[in-house]
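Need tokens for this chain, all 307 residues.
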Amino acid sequence: MVMRTTLIQAASSLRCTLALALSLACSIAHAQEPVSTDAAEVSVREISERLYRAEPGERVDFSNRDLTYLDLSGLNFKGARLTQSDFYGVDFTGANLSRADLSKTRLDRATLIDVDLRFANLSGATLLRPAVYRDMSKNLADTPDFSGAQLVGTRIQANLSGARFRGANLTRSDISPYEKRPGEGLFVTLSYNEFTSCDFSGATLHNANLHRVNFTFSQFNGADFTGANIAETDFTKADLRGANLTNADVHLANFESANLAGIVGLETARNFEMALNLDKAVAVPPAAFKIWKAQESKRLKLPNLDN
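Here are the structure tokens for all 307 residues:
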């Protein structure tokens, strides 16, 4: 009886400790996520009216505004100028933001379900933990469409599995999971950004930071990774036909069952000898595979890795 009581007390103490640790970690992780407590500078009604009255070709200007927490779902922004505005927590569900100027905006915690962002300019914007699914089933059809968009220097931390980035420009974008703030690397921070079953066909990813991104089942036909950081990135069953990996960092990148037919610059990639599972990939260029195989001894020294 005494032992049972002791075990119950120990279990209760452990639960309290874990709850306190989680609360503390979450507090640290959100310590530098400032959000305005004031009302948005423009009302939903005013935005709706100005967009409705806009003449064909007229680009309504809502730049440099605090528009946090507004419900802007279903609106057609008609290519509006929204640069440097704060859209923290805004609901854009079903909105048409195609060709809109969203450069240097904050879209953190925004709802981007079924949003049309084709050919929009999101250069320098931040998209930290946006909501992109209607429910826990995570239907890939709910995700936004970034095809042809400019995402130069854009910072993304999210699960965007199923999103379209065909022909998008992600030069110098940062899609690594960690944030430069307190809480980085804690268990409340994602260890991988989830971009499974995405379409990056023809996308430009020059010098992008794609460290520890899960690209399982994604399409990269003709994508250009020149100079990109794809260290520890998962390309399991991804389609990399015709992609360019010249000078990309592939340290511990996983290529298991990936289609590498016609891939360019693989053997010139940095840390090429430390790439994983090229022997399990499809259509690896023979010359590149020969170089990689000759460096097997280096990979065998890695702990707990299945090569």
